[in-house]
Amino acid sequence: MKDNFVGVGFLDDHLREYVVYVFAESSPEMLFLQRATHREYVGGTDKIDNGSTYYFKEDGSLVITRQFFNPHRQERTTGTADVATNYSRKPEFGHYEDLIRLERS
Questions:
Q1: pLDDT in 10s for each residue of the chain, 105 residues
Q2: How many C-beta neighbours within 10 Å does residue 27 have?
Q3: Strands (E), 1-105
Q4: Nearest of 33, 37, 43 to residue 10 by alpha carbon
Q5: Buried b or exposed e, range 34-65, using 16+ CB within 10 angstroms
Q6: Which residues, at least 6 apart from 48, have a Cβ–Cβ distance to it below 8 Å?
Q7: Which residues contact 73 (CB under 8 A, 6 or more apart)?
Q8: Label partner for 55 (CA 20 to 30 A): which of 15, 18, 26, 79?
Q9: What is the rounded CA–CA span in Å between residue 27 and residue 29?
């Protein structure tokens, strides 16, 4: 299962990857959104100002890390989340609409 994942990246107006979703196989038919990352950049540069990553587990546990780069510091928080909407059916070839939705409930 280590290699059974799908990564989806979203680009901003400057073609910088600002949101990344990583789905892992949770069963032969389903994928589970296990990681979501959001990055903010310094102005129109490619330099990352800060980023937040949400690590979801199927049992509802959640770890959030936030990294700031100027000056560098990192925060970590744990909690729980309703992960019912983190599941997506594995798509048929060419039908990726559910995986490429930016807004996820």
A1: 456 889 999 999 999 999 999 999 999 999 999 999 999 999 999 999 999 999 999 999 999 999 999 899 999 999 999 999 999 999 999 999 999 999 886
A2: 9
A3: 5-11, 17-25, 30-41, 48-56, 61-69, 72-80, 87-89
A4: 37
A5: bbbbebebeeeeeebeebebbebeeeeebebe
A6: 39, 40, 41, 42, 69
A7: 67
A8: 15
A9: 5
Whether the CB-CB separation of 41 and 21 falls below 8 Å is answered with no
Please report, as a single letter, which amino acid is at residue 23.
F
Rounded CA separation 59/83 (Å): 8
Nearest to 18 by CA among 43, 51, 42, 45: 51
Instruction: Report the predicted TM-score, pTM, of the whole model to 2 decimal places.
Output: 0.90
